[in-house]
Amino acid sequence: MPGFQPFEIIPGDPSPSLVILADHAMNSLPAEYGDLGLPAEAFKRHIAYDIGVEDVTRKLSARLGVPAVLSCFSRLLIDPNRGEDDPTLIMKLSDGMVIPANHPLSAEERERRLNLFHRPYHDAVAAVIAETWRKSGKAPLIISLHSFTHAWKGISRPWHAGVLWDTDPRAVYPLINALSTDQALIVGDNEPYDGALGGDTMHRHCSMTGLAHALLEIRQDLIDDTGGVDSWVDRLAPILAALTELPELHEVEFHGSRVT
């Protein structure tokens, strides 16, 4: 639609063969969708986007000089980190909040959102991965950045970060090990979520194509201001740079999936 771009590509040097993704970077909506019937406060919450991830992604991309792809629309409109057949693709209820504009939703409107937002984002991800691969001459490592709430349903989450994955451990174990060298950090292995999700971004672009990858979740209260963002960029930049030097992370290997 005029004036609204569903994704942003940050160009970078393809030679490290690293691509950073941010599925839930922003809380924006096209003007024609208004506020989806929600109060303004809803778009400051985790239900609308991954707090802190946009800034971490931009600064990491700049520090490492590598390409990144960011989604520019709120997950409340349609969730780019869900498969097209996932029942949570367009949420009717999220963390206790009803989204009026999403229920009822016609088949035509569902398809429209797929065509205008979800599919263009994934086309951009695929294009950046392909271009990086072609120019670097080696399969790229894919790192997807997300953030999670410090508590869920009244239960505190102890992890400072978590690495999510399905069955390919190649990037996962080195990333967990590198983060865990800081003994002040509690690093989750498939916490606070399970990384096996059929049709999600990692499954679609990595598990099904044999690319090494990891999804990194950072607790939102640790990156909700400039100081926190900069601290995590300082921590992650050398770790990701080191990962790009591992030859096994630039090979195509199929490890199957726990998703059926």
Question: What does this entry look like structurally?
Answer:
- The protein is α/β, with parallel strands linked by helices and 260 residues long.
- The chain is 29% helix and 17% strand.
- It has five helices and eleven strands, in the order ββαβββαββββαβαβα.
- The chain has helices at residues 53-64, 107-136, 172-180, 201-207, 226-243, and strands spanning 7-10, 18-22, 68-71, 93-94, 97-98, 141-148, 151-152, 155-156, 161-164, 187-189, 213-219.
- The strands form three sheets. A seven-stranded mixed sheet has the order 1-3-2-6-11-9-10, with helices on both faces. A two-stranded antiparallel ribbon has the order 4-5.
- Strand 9 (161-164), helix 3 (172-180) and strand 10 (187-189) form a beta-alpha-beta unit.
- Helix 1 packs across helix 5 (226-243) and helix 3 (172-180) packs across helix 5.
- The longest helix has 30 residues, at 107-136.
- It is globular, with a radius of gyration of 18 Å.
- The N and C termini lie far apart (35 Å).
Keywords:
260 residues, alpha/beta, single chain, two-stranded antiparallel ribbon, seven-stranded mixed beta sheet
Question: Please, how many helices?
Answer: 5
Instruction: Give a quick account of the main beta sheet: strands, pairing sense, barrel closure.
Output: 7 strands, mixed
Helical fraction: 25-40%
Q: Globular, elongated, flat, extended or rod-shaped: what is the shape?
A: globular
End-to-end CA span: 35 Å
Please identify the structural class as seen in this structure: alpha/beta
Strand tally, please? Answer: 11
Radius of gyration: 18 Å
Low-confidence parts? none
- The proportion of strand residues reads 15-25%
Mean pLDDT: 97
The succession of helices and strands, N to C, reads: EEHEEEHEEEEHEHEH
Quaternary form? single chain
> How is the largest sheet built, in terms of strand order?
1-3-2-6-11-9-10
